[in-house]
Amino acid sequence: LSDSVNQASKDIKIDFTREGRQGFAEVIYGEGKSLTQLLAIAKIHTDAQQPLLVTRMNDGIMEPLCESFEGNTGELIKSENERTLVWLPESYESPKLTGQVALVSAGASDEAVLEEAEMTLNFFGASSFRVCDAGVAGIHRLLAHEERLHQATMCIVVAGMDGALPSVVGGLVGCPVVAVPTSVGYGACFGGVSALLSMINSCASGLTVVNIDNGYGAAMAGVRLLKSITKASK
Amino acid sequence: LSDSVNQASKDIKIDFTREGRQGFAEVIYGEGKSLTQLLAIAKIHTDAQQPLLVTRMNDGIMEPLCESFEGNTGELIKSENERTLVWLPESYESPKLTGQVALVSAGASDEAVLEEAEMTLNFFGASSFRVCDAGVAGIHRLLAHEERLHQATMCIVVAGMDGALPSVVGGLVGCPVVAVPTSVGYGACFGGVSALLSMINSCASGLTVVNIDNGYGAAMAGVRLLKSITKASK
Amino acid sequence: LSDSVNQASKDIKIDFTREGRQGFAEVIYGEGKSLTQLLAIAKIHTDAQQPLLVTRMNDGIMEPLCESFEGNTGELIKSENERTLVWLPESYESPKLTGQVALVSAGASDEAVLEEAEMTLNFFGASSFRVCDAGVAGIHRLLAHEERLHQATMCIVVAGMDGALPSVVGGLVGCPVVAVPTSVGYGACFGGVSALLSMINSCASGLTVVNIDNGYGAAMAGVRLLKSITKASK
Amino acid sequence: LSDSVNQASKDIKIDFTREGRQGFAEVIYGEGKSLTQLLAIAKIHTDAQQPLLVTRMNDGIMEPLCESFEGNTGELIKSENERTLVWLPESYESPKLTGQVALVSAGASDEAVLEEAEMTLNFFGASSFRVCDAGVAGIHRLLAHEERLHQATMCIVVAGMDGALPSVVGGLVGCPVVAVPTSVGYGACFGGVSALLSMINSCASGLTVVNIDNGYGAAMAGVRLLKSITKASK
Amino acid sequence: LSDSVNQASKDIKIDFTREGRQGFAEVIYGEGKSLTQLLAIAKIHTDAQQPLLVTRMNDGIMEPLCESFEGNTGELIKSENERTLVWLPESYESPKLTGQVALVSAGASDEAVLEEAEMTLNFFGASSFRVCDAGVAGIHRLLAHEERLHQATMCIVVAGMDGALPSVVGGLVGCPVVAVPTSVGYGACFGGVSALLSMINSCASGLTVVNIDNGYGAAMAGVRLLKSITKASK
Amino acid sequence: LSDSVNQASKDIKIDFTREGRQGFAEVIYGEGKSLTQLLAIAKIHTDAQQPLLVTRMNDGIMEPLCESFEGNTGELIKSENERTLVWLPESYESPKLTGQVALVSAGASDEAVLEEAEMTLNFFGASSFRVCDAGVAGIHRLLAHEERLHQATMCIVVAGMDGALPSVVGGLVGCPVVAVPTSVGYGACFGGVSALLSMINSCASGLTVVNIDNGYGAAMAGVRLLKSITKASK
Amino acid sequence: LSDSVNQASKDIKIDFTREGRQGFAEVIYGEGKSLTQLLAIAKIHTDAQQPLLVTRMNDGIMEPLCESFEGNTGELIKSENERTLVWLPESYESPKLTGQVALVSAGASDEAVLEEAEMTLNFFGASSFRVCDAGVAGIHRLLAHEERLHQATMCIVVAGMDGALPSVVGGLVGCPVVAVPTSVGYGACFGGVSALLSMINSCASGLTVVNIDNGYGAAMAGVRLLKSITKASK
Amino acid sequence: LSDSVNQASKDIKIDFTREGRQGFAEVIYGEGKSLTQLLAIAKIHTDAQQPLLVTRMNDGIMEPLCESFEGNTGELIKSENERTLVWLPESYESPKLTGQVALVSAGASDEAVLEEAEMTLNFFGASSFRVCDAGVAGIHRLLAHEERLHQATMCIVVAGMDGALPSVVGGLVGCPVVAVPTSVGYGACFGGVSALLSMINSCASGLTVVNIDNGYGAAMAGVRLLKSITKASK
To answer: Is the complex ipTM higher than 0.90?
Structure first.
């Protein structure tokens, strides 16, 4: 294996200077990438002592990938569903963005998507806090958190099934709200399409939406926003 | 015209005994029916002094149809959108069903569907009250009515766009809740499909759903329910 | 395993007082929950001697979950398809709701959904009886049960493929009818969408519909209804 | 106008010999054809004393088209919805096919499609009889005709909304059954798609289906069948 | 296993008299049925010396099911894809229907559906012949069979992908044509929906369509037809 | 008319204090509202000297509505497509939000949606500038504006047909980007669904999306964002 | 009107040099453009003596637009459906591309799309010939043209309904084939989606497809191809 | 195994003369074909010393199939994803087509489809070169290749997710462009439908499209084109 990894690590080109043009470090989209490819990418990053974020890894990748970091100092964080990985080299000093993001989810099954958003936000230096299990069928549980939501710079709201939660949150707060539909549900939820449509048609004005299960994308919208605020508040 | 109306009134067979088998008077589905056909039906009902409910009439029918009732005593009620008509003969003693139905709507544009439900309920002897403009983007407006909702025997909840309102109501009350999606909205609301899917996938358990804009159907579900309750409470 | 179960049983919060607000005990939605999570939930319920209903469990969960109840007196019921589980502690005295629900199914393959409805109804104290294999392509088999259907307080009608059965039942009886489309079929049945659309567009008035394969939801609509009747008949 | 009609009647080629190859006279599909084009076609047919069937004419065509037949002996038949026209020259001796087709429809609004089928059948020499307003929500009305249905060589069953009727008829009779979905309905009937899917997924075996509102196509399936029977019975 | 099979064979009711009402022996729909259920059904049929047709069996059923027939004289036929099974007891005298069905398929991958149709036809006593690999992209291969197609009483045409073949065959022959879309293809074929739509919209008049991959249904349409012809030609 | 307008202006309740809770003035959604209703709303606003924004007015409303403002000093702005109206009373001092929004559109037909966004932004005190006719099929035209785009606080990108423009803009800039699909196109654009899907699946990370033709919603997302920045930069 | 036309002709920028970069003159997409806008564009072109092609004009535009060319020498060509217009100034010398395009259509209703393709091809200097009314339900009519098709450099095949024709043509010829689905049909043709899917899934290899009714796009594919051939053959 | 392979190799008929009529050698569509069938096909080709191209093989086929070529001289090429195989006998002299095809892909995950196109092109004697990882979110990476793209005779552009790349390439070059949507993506990409729609609605004129993941089909369009050019340039 190590030969093919070495070979692959020479073929793959990671653009560590990308941050220059657009302001973001490159993130690795794991879906469809082989273990060899991801081991090579990990090697490149550890060799260069550059932070690494991998999302949507295929099954069976996480464990051997984590093992490959052994012997490298630094912080290794993996998501509960074993699909997202962050590695921060010891020497790495994370950026600190102004503001904080509220991560709101409807049910327990939506938390995997919320966690992807959270890891992405933190990787890019954005603070966040969680408001979980706040689905609209128990509206008083959400309202108990109303005060806290008013302190957020921005809300990311994650929900499957009827996708109703972002409409309620959007009516409660005046800050930017990004809605993330999830594939949680069955039957006519059509893998998240029901929630997606609900959010696109929200009666709360100014809500914006990302793809189904795209916690990463919502977090990146947050990073774009907090960078603007960080720049403006200087 | 009157000749063809007379002819038609002989050809059409209205089943005034239908109530016997299933317990409901026949209701006229107006869509696609010509003025001549509806005038004939009106004539049959006035001749027989039987109450009449017509739903979903085509454009341009309401005015001449109403005129044909002139000279007949009784009560004539028409909906604001000129698509639903009720005629109750003077001698008619409406049945009185036990219980009352809360009619809840999200926005002003949903009220036409709510009115169809209301006229149908009242035609069959069911009491109802309205809670309007209670969309979830202004959740505190809905909660102001919470006490009243707890007094309902059943809730009919009408909403377009994100169709989120029934999920919230379903979580607030313990009585039966019927959700009616409406075609209100544009773009990816797909003429009410977004709201329909949202309701079918509601995270509030025990919610049931009818067709888009089908205020009549929701009311009939209510009539079925209140009949059961009326029977049980005797 | 037992350590992580113990840990999880401390993290998870089950709301045994929920019945207060809305009138229903909490039900566990099994889909996507791990064995550890469900073992912890079972432990909490057995410790508190509270009845438990789990629906839509993933494959491979049922057997170890059942084993964990050993040593606890009480009644343990599992569905044939190993996706639904009920546990009633010995001391538990089930509520008794007024009325009875007819559970009607079209074909043998629809019976798994019917069973989910049945277990849910009984868990909440509602009586029910079955009318199986009554699909419309053999209409005389259904009509043989007509008399029995007239004795039901409410009908839950389960059908896949053409989803035609609820329209016929809705025309036969005057009581509330809830239709459950199932994913039984192939090709252009689209996992139950064909049956769902057929039911949403039923020519029988006052029929209401729940999500595909949602026997649990139909049963909860029944529980809401029978609670109303129980209250009214007191 | 008459000049352009004359010109068009020279440009258009009608294949009166087509019957030779496949056995059917050519039928004119009216949708999208201009008055001029249809007048020219009518002129060609009257000049050649050949029978004419036009289907799905656009609005406003029927009246002037009928007027153009004045002065020509023969039989002129037009449908109630002014979209189908038959002209049979006086000298024309219609073929006589063996067997008879039952035309069954669910509701009053489905009868326009049934009439298109009926006119087509009769144009090609097939006998037929009607069983109308036999929708499944009043199943006893259909069963009252059961004996008659058993006398048909073939059934064409027309229904919109839930499209459930063909499944019931297909279970009652052993002869070939062709189902025609109609666009009758609203909301999630999607212009007849709900009925089409219901029929394609029918639980009655051996049912076949044609396009939405395609009474003409169902009739042609009948003509193909009766030709086979006519040939076989000789 | 044999105990549960014996038990199941007592619970299951097979209606050997069904042929009386509608004229067809009962066929077993295998999808979703367990090995135990199917072994029990086989036992009932062998005990009663009644012919058996099972369609759409799940994976892994065919081999043990076939073994259970050992020791029973008679003919056992299984499809290449191991999803369809026919058993004819030795004493069984098959009916003989008048006419013959042409089974036409577009590509090699469509032949599994064609075989299901063929086995069903033959089970009910209908003769058939095959015209394979006649897809429209090689139109001269189809035309080489034109003469043979004219000898068929009816054509069943099976095609996936563009589903174009039935339109061409429908234009070549005057006898009844039933089109069967298959799920062969990938991408935007949507599991056969592309072929289904193509056939429903065929420009050849009088073509009728069954569900995707429903070779059984097309064959039953053929059986209905050949029964009519058999009756007529007596 | 004026009587009914007076009556309506008493029935309608406009919540001028709404700004308190969530921070936005109420905007009138014109779709489906009658002239009488909108005249009444205009009267309320002019009486109270409160600014007014009406979006998506039906045809034929704009002209008489504008006339009703005669005699009232202040600024009246109407969109080219006569669907959006702004009225600012003379005394009104608009808020001034920090930052500026780039409004980028693909083709000439997309500019109506862009104008709705522009009027909404300006109504709420946000500055904006236009980059028009910058569709991706002429990529060099867009790149000519790259420098200007880098000066925006946020980009709203409007495109129909292939909806490709936001992906390119999202890759060029680091600030927040909101994509607005439009219904411009024909055939398989499905009224904007093609563009909507393209944007939801954008390969540029952190892009968010609103409903088809929803220029108003995108602007409101901008207002939420600029409010955050205004607050942060104080 | 003329004032606003003059004004508009100053605001609109037509890029007569565009041909330089990509090699095509600019074509005006008429859909949604007002008469004023199109009159201004015409004025710019006549002033500059540059050829003009306008496609998909709205209703009521053609006549006044044509009148505006009066007094300008040159050739004015308009399509039968009054949606496409070509104006060639007298001085204009059309380019001459090598090769010829066969334009094949299935039915009479598809010819409007074929004409759009034809006018576009000729505008850009490409020769073409027509093979009309060659739908696959009359396959021998198509085969009568086989020899001619072999002489084409490329085939554009236009068909609605089942969209089957391109598959047959693609199997007959070895040259490039572009398929154009049309919106001709009704019911489950879904405005051309059925034909589009059929073509995308064609069993003839190497077929490519454009949007529904997009005769212009198919012609532009032809122009791209003939330019390559013209260049290669020099 | 070898017996059944021998038997199968006698049953299967490969048309090595097909090239005569249409000009293409037969290609084997591997999907759904068993190992036995493919081994037999390989045997026929090696026996006849005819080149072989197999596409879309099922999992687990490639390795044993490759082994069967041992002992046969010639070149064996397999794709990285183990779904495409080419075998060229030693004696085989490949045709040489004029021109070269640019193969452009958006992301790393799209390269499997690009490779299928590349192998097909080369099998038929067409030259090609790759421009990879040129997605529109990094537009400057694509523009760095602009000069090279202008040298292509034709471009095949492969992209998933938003499918935006072909629109940009189509605007850059004047040669024929064929777009290939891929199934790369998740959520609302619907297995490539999002990319397909984007390409069908491209704002770049003259772009044509093939099925999702159909690299083979795009290559065949290229082969058709290069054959035309080869013929023209002689």
So the answer is: yes
What is residue F20's predicted lDDT score, i.e. its pLDDT?
47
Angle at G192 between CA G189 and CA G193, to 5 degrees: 80
Contact B205 C225 (CB under 8 A): no
Point out the residue among C107, C109, C187 whose CB comes nearest to the CB of E213: C187
- Mean pLDDT of the C107-128 span: 95
From A21, A31, A193, residue closest to H188, measured CB to CB: A193
Higher pLDDT, C108 or A148: A148
Contact B137 A162 (CB under 8 A): no
Mapping DSSP onto H, E and C, the string for chain E reads CHHHHHHHHHHCCCCCCCHHHHCCCCCEECCCCCHHHHHHHHHHHHHHCCCEEEECCCCCCHHHHHHCCCCCCCEEEECCCCCCEEEECCCCCCCCCCCEEEEEECCHHHHHHHHHHHHHHHHCCCEEEEECCCCHHHHHHHHCCHHHHCCCCEEEEEECCCCCHHHHHHHHCCCCEEEEECCCCCHHHHHHHHHHHHHHCCCCCCCEECCCCCHHHHHHHHHHHHHHHHHHCC
Which residue carries 């804009």 as its tokens?
A: B213
Chain B residues closer than 8 Å to D188 by CB: 192-193, 196, 211-212
Cβ atoms of residues B119 and B53 within 8 Å: yes
**Residue B12 or residue H210, greater confidence:** H210
Residue B138 Cα, gap to closest chain F Cα (Å): 10
Write out the residues of chain B at the interface with chain C, using a CB-CB cutoff of 8 A.
Answer: 22-24, 27, 98-99, 153-154, 171-178, 196, 200-201, 205-211, 216-225, 227-229, 232-233
Average pLDDT of the residues in G102-126: 95
pLDDT at G74 over 70: yes
Model-level pTM greater than 0.90?
yes
Structure tokens that stand for C6 in this block = 């113990």
Pick the residue from chain E with its C-alpha nearest to C189. Answer: E211
Q: What is the pLDDT of residues D193-221, one digit of tens each?
A: 999 999 999 999 999 999 999 999 999 99
Using CA coordinates, name the residue in chain H closest to G229: H229
Q: DSSP label at H170?
A: H
Could you tell me the two tokens for B94?
């409406």
**Chains that contact F by 3+ CB pairs under 8 Å?**
A, B, G, H
d(CA D15, CA D13): 6
Mutate to test the interface with C, among E211, E213, E216, E220 (most CBs of C within 10 A): E211
Residues A183-218 have pLDDT tens digits of 999 999 999 999 999 999 999 999 999 999 999 999
Cβ contact, residue pair C31, A187, below 8 Å: no
Q: Are D157 and D128 in contact (CB under 8 A)?
A: no
Cβ atoms C133, C105 nearer than 8 A: yes
pLDDT at B233: 82
Token pair of F80, please?
């080219």
Q: Coil, helix or strand for A223? A: helix
Q: Which of H30, H231, H210 is nearest to G174 (CA)?
A: H231
Record the tokens describing residue A173, joined without a space: 């707060």
> In this structure, what are the phi and psi dihedrals at residue E80, rounded to the nearest 5 degrees?
-60, -35
More confident position, F19 or G63: G63
Q: Which amino acid is at B10?
A: K
Q: Identify which of F107, F143, F193 has the shortest CB distance to residue H203.
A: F107
pLDDT for B232 equals 87
Task: Give G-chain residues touching F189 at CB under 8 angstroms.
Answer: 211
The Cα of F147 is separated from the nearest Cα of chain B by a number of Å equal to: 33
Q: What is the mean pLDDT of residues C22-40?
A: 85
pLDDT at H18: 54
| pLDDT reading at E105 higher than 50 | yes
CA distance C90 to chain A (A): 30
* Percent of residues, chain F, with pLDDT higher than 90: 79
Flag if G212 and F108 touch (Cβ within 8 Å): no
